[in-house]
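[worker-b] picked up task from shared queue
[worker-b] task type: protein-ligand structure
[worker-b] ligand name resolved to zinc ion; SMILES cross-checked against name lookup, match
[worker-b] sequence length check passed
[worker-b] input payload:
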Amino acid sequence: MREISNKIENKINIINQKFENINNKMSEIDTKFESIFNKVVNQNQNNTKTQNDIESLLRMLNTNNNSVFSSSLNNLRNDSIIEFRGFKMRADVAAKFIKLEEMIKQEFPGRQIIITSGMDGQHMPGSKHYEGKAIDFVVEPLTIEESKKIEELAKKAGFDVYNEYIYDSPYKTGPHMHIQIP
Ligand SMILES: [Zn+2]
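[worker-b] inference finished, payload out:
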């Protein structure tokens, strides 16, 4: 009996060791990836091909790890137009939105947070959407009452907010939150 439990303990130790190795490798990969990313970004920001590379890298990061994504965003010019969650917007808007998303997740764990519009779509003439400075998003599910809390968090994150869960607009396409930077 004692012998069996010793054997099991040994196996568990081996497994733990393997996990530790995997974790170490993962952070090595993270670091390598970041340095490659920084190289690509620094090469030439105005080069169209590079811009496409950056976008595809961002798209890839976007599906993986938010923290790597944010640190990569820091290396872009604020007014660089990037694709984030399938929508075009300025890099600083995406970075701010990631922060807001963390705040929303804390307040409403388990809710879905979905961007519904960036630079695309129909908006008011002169809308910040066309400059990449505005995005629309929804939180699901969400009551009208709760939308006021989201409004508050978005302001805290540094956005100007138009709560279209409550207020109507001529271009209203359904209940959502419109946020923009000045
Ligand atoms: Zn909007």
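[worker-b] attaching auto-annotations
[worker-b] The two ends are 70 Å apart (CA to CA).
[worker-b] releasing lock
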